[in-house]
Pyruvate kinase (Megasphaera elsdenii), 333 residues
Amino acid sequence: PAEEVPMLQKVLIHKCQAAGKPVITATQMLESMCNNPRPTRAETSDVANAILDGTDAIMLSGETAGGLYPVEAVETMARVATFTESNFTPKSYEDVDAESTTTTESIGKAVVKIAKDLHAAAIIASTERGGTAQMISKFRPACPIVAVSPHEAIVRRLQLNWGVQAVTGKEANDTDAVVDNAIFAALDNDLIKAGDLVVLTAGVPVAKAGSTNMIRVQVVGDVLLRGTGIGRNSAIGKVCVAESKEDLEKNFSDGCILVLRSARADFVDYMKRASAIVSEEVGLTSESAIVAITLGIPTVVGAAHAVDTLENGEIVTVDASRGTIFRGEANAR
Protein backbone atom coordinates (compact mmCIF):
# COMPACT_ATOMS: atom_id res chain seq x y z
CA PRO A 1 0.00 0.00 0.00
CA ALA A 2 1.24 3.47 -0.89
CA GLU A 3 0.64 4.85 2.61
CA GLU A 4 3.18 2.41 4.06
CA VAL A 5 6.03 3.37 1.74
CA PRO A 6 7.38 6.38 3.74
CA MET A 7 7.58 4.44 7.00
CA LEU A 8 9.02 1.35 5.31
CA GLN A 9 11.71 3.52 3.72
CA LYS A 10 12.70 4.88 7.13
CA VAL A 11 12.71 1.42 8.71
CA LEU A 12 14.83 -0.08 5.93
CA ILE A 13 17.35 2.78 6.04
CA HIS A 14 17.63 2.46 9.83
CA LYS A 15 18.15 -1.30 9.64
CA CYS A 16 20.83 -0.96 6.98
CA GLN A 17 22.66 1.67 9.01
CA ALA A 18 22.48 -0.48 12.16
CA ALA A 19 23.97 -3.38 10.17
CA GLY A 20 26.70 -1.20 8.66
CA LYS A 21 25.49 -1.79 5.11
CA PRO A 22 25.16 0.95 2.48
CA VAL A 23 21.63 1.83 1.41
CA ILE A 24 20.64 3.62 -1.81
CA THR A 25 17.33 5.46 -2.11
CA ALA A 26 16.02 5.74 -5.66
CA THR A 27 13.05 5.63 -8.09
CA GLN A 28 10.88 8.58 -9.14
CA MET A 29 12.64 11.02 -6.83
CA LEU A 30 12.59 13.78 -9.48
CA GLU A 31 10.09 12.17 -11.86
CA SER A 32 8.63 15.46 -13.12
CA MET A 33 12.04 16.44 -14.49
CA CYS A 34 11.65 13.85 -17.22
CA ASN A 35 9.57 16.55 -18.94
CA ASN A 36 10.16 19.75 -16.96
CA PRO A 37 13.34 21.68 -16.15
CA ARG A 38 12.32 22.21 -12.51
CA PRO A 39 11.17 19.70 -9.89
CA THR A 40 8.10 20.00 -7.72
CA ARG A 41 8.42 21.03 -4.07
CA ALA A 42 7.25 17.58 -3.04
CA GLU A 43 10.08 15.98 -5.01
CA THR A 44 12.78 18.14 -3.48
CA SER A 45 11.33 17.33 -0.06
CA ASP A 46 11.47 13.63 -0.95
CA VAL A 47 15.19 13.90 -1.78
CA ALA A 48 15.93 15.89 1.38
CA ASN A 49 13.96 13.51 3.61
CA ALA A 50 15.88 10.50 2.31
CA ILE A 51 19.10 12.25 3.38
CA LEU A 52 17.61 13.19 6.74
CA ASP A 53 16.63 9.54 7.21
CA GLY A 54 20.31 8.62 6.89
CA THR A 55 20.55 7.10 3.42
CA ASP A 56 24.06 6.56 2.07
CA ALA A 57 23.28 7.47 -1.54
CA ILE A 58 20.48 8.82 -3.71
CA MET A 59 20.03 7.78 -7.32
CA LEU A 60 18.29 8.95 -10.47
CA SER A 61 17.02 6.54 -13.11
CA GLY A 62 14.46 7.58 -15.72
CA GLU A 63 15.28 11.24 -15.21
CA THR A 64 18.74 10.73 -16.73
CA ALA A 65 18.15 7.61 -18.82
CA GLY A 66 15.28 8.98 -20.91
CA GLY A 67 14.35 12.39 -19.54
CA LEU A 68 14.53 15.67 -21.41
CA TYR A 69 16.65 17.40 -18.75
CA PRO A 70 19.23 14.87 -17.51
CA VAL A 71 21.94 17.41 -16.63
CA GLU A 72 19.51 19.68 -14.81
CA ALA A 73 18.17 16.69 -12.87
CA VAL A 74 21.65 15.77 -11.64
CA GLU A 75 22.46 19.37 -10.75
CA THR A 76 19.18 19.75 -8.86
CA MET A 77 19.69 16.56 -6.87
CA ALA A 78 23.26 17.58 -6.03
CA ARG A 79 22.15 21.02 -4.82
CA VAL A 80 19.40 19.60 -2.64
CA ALA A 81 21.77 16.99 -1.18
CA THR A 82 24.54 19.51 -0.50
CA PHE A 83 22.22 22.03 1.14
CA THR A 84 20.50 19.41 3.27
CA GLU A 85 23.74 17.86 4.50
CA SER A 86 25.25 21.27 5.28
CA ASN A 87 22.33 22.02 7.61
CA PHE A 88 21.97 18.61 9.21
CA THR A 89 24.04 16.74 11.79
CA PRO A 90 23.58 12.97 11.43
CA LYS A 91 23.14 10.65 14.38
CA SER A 92 26.51 9.99 15.96
CA TYR A 93 27.99 6.74 17.14
CA GLU A 94 26.56 7.43 20.61
CA ASP A 95 23.02 7.24 19.25
CA VAL A 96 23.38 3.95 17.39
CA ASP A 97 21.45 1.23 19.21
CA ALA A 98 23.22 -1.87 17.93
CA GLU A 99 26.06 -3.18 20.08
CA SER A 100 29.44 -4.00 18.58
CA THR A 101 29.72 -7.69 17.78
CA THR A 102 33.05 -7.84 15.89
CA THR A 103 36.55 -6.49 16.33
CA THR A 104 36.21 -4.36 13.19
CA GLU A 105 33.00 -2.80 14.48
CA SER A 106 34.48 -2.07 17.91
CA ILE A 107 37.55 -0.51 16.29
CA GLY A 108 35.29 1.59 14.07
CA LYS A 109 33.37 2.94 17.05
CA ALA A 110 36.60 3.70 18.95
CA VAL A 111 38.12 5.48 15.94
CA VAL A 112 35.11 7.79 15.66
CA LYS A 113 35.28 8.60 19.39
CA ILE A 114 39.01 9.39 19.17
CA ALA A 115 38.53 11.53 16.06
CA LYS A 116 35.80 13.52 17.80
CA ASP A 117 37.82 14.07 20.98
CA LEU A 118 40.96 15.18 19.12
CA HIS A 119 39.14 17.18 16.41
CA ALA A 120 40.86 15.10 13.75
CA ALA A 121 40.89 16.36 10.18
CA ALA A 122 40.16 12.89 8.82
CA ILE A 123 39.90 9.21 9.61
CA ILE A 124 42.12 7.16 7.31
CA ALA A 125 41.19 3.50 6.93
CA SER A 126 43.60 1.20 5.15
CA THR A 127 41.30 -1.56 4.01
CA GLU A 128 41.68 -4.73 1.97
CA ARG A 129 38.01 -5.49 1.26
CA GLY A 130 36.29 -2.30 2.42
CA GLY A 131 34.81 -3.59 5.65
CA THR A 132 36.74 -1.22 7.91
CA ALA A 133 35.64 1.95 6.13
CA GLN A 134 32.10 0.61 5.90
CA MET A 135 31.92 0.06 9.66
CA ILE A 136 33.37 3.49 10.42
CA SER A 137 30.74 5.03 8.14
CA LYS A 138 28.05 3.34 10.22
CA PHE A 139 28.88 5.59 13.17
CA ARG A 140 28.63 8.83 11.13
CA PRO A 141 31.81 10.68 12.20
CA ALA A 142 32.00 14.45 11.86
CA CYS A 143 35.21 14.30 9.79
CA PRO A 144 35.75 12.69 6.36
CA ILE A 145 36.58 9.00 6.10
CA VAL A 146 39.45 8.38 3.69
CA ALA A 147 39.46 4.74 2.62
CA VAL A 148 42.68 3.53 1.01
CA SER A 149 42.72 0.21 -0.82
CA PRO A 150 45.01 -1.31 -3.46
CA HIS A 151 41.99 -2.74 -5.28
CA GLU A 152 40.14 -0.56 -7.81
CA ALA A 153 36.90 -2.52 -7.43
CA ILE A 154 36.87 -1.91 -3.68
CA VAL A 155 37.57 1.80 -4.17
CA ARG A 156 34.62 2.13 -6.57
CA ARG A 157 32.29 0.21 -4.27
CA LEU A 158 33.19 2.27 -1.20
CA GLN A 159 32.15 5.53 -2.90
CA LEU A 160 28.54 4.58 -2.12
CA ASN A 161 29.09 4.68 1.64
CA TRP A 162 28.17 7.77 3.63
CA GLY A 163 31.12 10.09 4.29
CA VAL A 164 33.67 7.86 2.55
CA GLN A 165 36.16 9.20 0.02
CA ALA A 166 37.95 6.17 -1.36
CA VAL A 167 41.32 6.31 -3.12
CA THR A 168 43.75 3.78 -4.50
CA GLY A 169 46.92 3.12 -2.54
CA LYS A 170 49.98 0.93 -2.89
CA GLU A 171 50.19 -2.53 -1.40
CA ALA A 172 52.41 -2.89 1.67
CA ASN A 173 54.15 -5.66 3.57
CA ASP A 174 54.48 -4.14 7.04
CA THR A 175 52.58 -1.82 9.37
CA ASP A 176 54.76 1.27 8.87
CA ALA A 177 54.47 0.97 5.10
CA VAL A 178 50.68 0.63 5.41
CA VAL A 179 50.49 3.86 7.42
CA ASP A 180 52.87 5.75 5.11
CA ASN A 181 51.10 4.59 1.95
CA ALA A 182 47.71 5.57 3.34
CA ILE A 183 48.88 9.06 4.32
CA PHE A 184 50.62 9.63 0.98
CA ALA A 185 47.51 8.50 -0.91
CA ALA A 186 45.35 10.94 1.06
CA LEU A 187 47.87 13.76 0.53
CA ASP A 188 48.16 13.06 -3.20
CA ASN A 189 44.38 13.39 -3.54
CA ASP A 190 44.26 16.64 -1.50
CA LEU A 191 42.06 15.04 1.16
CA ILE A 192 44.41 16.07 3.98
CA LYS A 193 47.27 18.53 4.27
CA ALA A 194 50.49 18.90 6.20
CA GLY A 195 49.81 19.78 9.82
CA ASP A 196 46.54 17.85 10.04
CA LEU A 197 45.95 15.40 12.85
CA VAL A 198 44.51 12.15 11.52
CA VAL A 199 43.35 8.88 13.05
CA LEU A 200 44.48 5.80 11.14
CA THR A 201 43.19 2.27 11.36
CA ALA A 202 44.49 -0.87 9.70
CA GLY A 203 45.01 -4.56 10.32
CA VAL A 204 47.95 -6.66 11.44
CA PRO A 205 48.96 -8.88 9.71
CA VAL A 206 48.66 -6.61 6.69
CA ALA A 207 46.85 -7.48 3.44
CA LYS A 208 44.50 -9.83 5.26
CA ALA A 209 40.77 -9.15 5.10
CA GLY A 210 38.97 -8.89 8.43
CA SER A 211 42.11 -8.31 10.51
CA THR A 212 41.43 -4.70 11.59
CA ASN A 213 43.00 -4.32 15.02
CA MET A 214 45.17 -1.19 15.02
CA ILE A 215 44.52 2.49 15.73
CA ARG A 216 47.17 5.19 15.38
CA VAL A 217 46.92 8.93 15.92
CA GLN A 218 49.38 10.84 13.78
CA VAL A 219 50.18 14.38 12.77
CA VAL A 220 50.72 14.76 9.04
CA GLY A 221 53.69 16.96 8.49
CA ASP A 222 57.25 17.56 7.53
CA VAL A 223 59.22 16.31 10.53
CA LEU A 224 62.29 18.48 10.96
CA LEU A 225 63.78 17.00 14.12
CA ARG A 226 63.20 14.29 16.68
CA GLY A 227 64.40 14.01 20.26
CA THR A 228 63.18 13.25 23.76
CA GLY A 229 60.06 15.14 24.74
CA ILE A 230 59.44 16.64 28.17
CA GLY A 231 55.81 17.35 28.97
CA ARG A 232 52.61 16.55 27.14
CA ASN A 233 51.79 19.88 25.56
CA SER A 234 52.67 21.37 22.20
CA ALA A 235 53.49 24.87 21.03
CA ILE A 236 53.54 26.76 17.75
CA GLY A 237 55.73 29.77 17.18
CA LYS A 238 58.64 31.47 15.47
CA VAL A 239 62.10 30.06 15.97
CA CYS A 240 64.74 32.00 17.86
CA VAL A 241 68.15 30.34 17.51
CA ALA A 242 70.39 31.33 20.42
CA GLU A 243 74.08 30.55 20.67
CA SER A 244 74.80 33.63 22.76
CA LYS A 245 72.97 36.21 24.83
CA GLU A 246 73.50 38.68 22.00
CA ASP A 247 71.40 36.42 19.74
CA LEU A 248 68.59 36.53 22.30
CA GLU A 249 68.74 40.30 22.67
CA LYS A 250 68.54 40.65 18.92
CA ASN A 251 66.00 38.00 17.89
CA PHE A 252 63.98 36.91 20.92
CA SER A 253 60.34 37.85 21.43
CA ASP A 254 57.88 36.50 23.99
CA GLY A 255 56.24 33.22 22.97
CA CYS A 256 58.87 32.16 20.46
CA ILE A 257 60.41 28.69 20.16
CA LEU A 258 63.85 28.90 21.77
CA VAL A 259 66.48 26.72 20.08
CA LEU A 260 69.72 26.09 22.01
CA ARG A 261 72.80 23.96 22.00
CA SER A 262 72.60 23.85 25.80
CA ALA A 263 71.03 25.78 28.65
CA ARG A 264 73.04 28.54 30.32
CA ALA A 265 72.43 30.63 33.40
CA ASP A 266 72.12 33.83 31.36
CA PHE A 267 69.47 32.17 29.14
CA VAL A 268 67.03 31.34 31.97
CA ASP A 269 65.11 34.64 31.92
CA TYR A 270 64.46 34.18 28.21
CA MET A 271 63.57 30.49 28.63
CA LYS A 272 60.81 31.48 31.06
CA ARG A 273 59.18 33.60 28.35
CA ALA A 274 59.49 31.05 25.54
CA SER A 275 56.49 28.94 24.49
CA ALA A 276 58.75 25.91 23.95
CA ILE A 277 62.41 24.92 24.07
CA VAL A 278 64.43 22.79 21.66
CA SER A 279 67.87 21.78 22.88
CA GLU A 280 70.70 19.70 21.50
CA GLU A 281 71.62 18.58 25.03
CA VAL A 282 71.00 14.87 25.54
CA GLY A 283 69.28 13.32 28.54
CA LEU A 284 66.56 13.98 31.07
CA THR A 285 69.18 15.09 33.60
CA SER A 286 70.69 17.74 31.31
CA GLU A 287 70.51 21.43 32.24
CA SER A 288 67.91 22.06 29.53
CA ALA A 289 65.71 19.23 30.80
CA ILE A 290 65.93 20.39 34.41
CA VAL A 291 64.98 23.95 33.48
CA ALA A 292 62.10 22.69 31.31
CA ILE A 293 60.72 20.49 34.09
CA THR A 294 61.03 23.34 36.59
CA LEU A 295 59.29 25.84 34.33
CA GLY A 296 56.73 23.40 32.92
CA ILE A 297 57.48 24.40 29.33
CA PRO A 298 57.08 21.95 26.40
CA THR A 299 60.61 20.89 25.54
CA VAL A 300 62.47 18.53 23.25
CA VAL A 301 66.03 17.63 24.28
CA GLY A 302 68.52 15.59 22.31
CA ALA A 303 67.44 17.23 19.05
CA ALA A 304 70.65 16.71 17.10
CA HIS A 305 71.85 19.64 14.94
CA ALA A 306 68.81 21.74 15.92
CA VAL A 307 70.77 24.99 15.87
CA ASP A 308 72.05 24.30 12.36
CA THR A 309 68.75 22.92 11.03
CA LEU A 310 66.25 25.53 12.23
CA GLU A 311 66.31 29.15 11.09
CA ASN A 312 65.36 32.36 12.86
CA GLY A 313 61.77 33.39 12.15
CA GLU A 314 60.75 29.98 10.85
CA ILE A 315 57.33 28.78 12.05
CA VAL A 316 57.47 25.35 13.69
CA THR A 317 55.35 23.15 15.95
CA VAL A 318 57.00 21.52 18.96
CA ASP A 319 55.17 18.36 20.05
CA ALA A 320 56.63 17.45 23.43
CA SER A 321 54.48 14.34 23.85
CA ARG A 322 56.04 12.81 20.73
CA GLY A 323 59.44 14.50 20.94
CA THR A 324 58.96 15.88 17.43
CA ILE A 325 59.40 19.24 15.72
CA PHE A 326 57.23 19.83 12.64
CA ARG A 327 57.60 22.47 9.96
CA GLY A 328 54.77 25.01 10.04
CA GLU A 329 51.59 24.80 12.08
CA ALA A 330 50.51 21.28 12.99
CA ASN A 331 47.54 20.07 15.01
CA ALA A 332 49.57 18.22 17.63
CA ARG A 333 47.25 17.01 20.38
Summary: The chain has a mean pLDDT of 89.
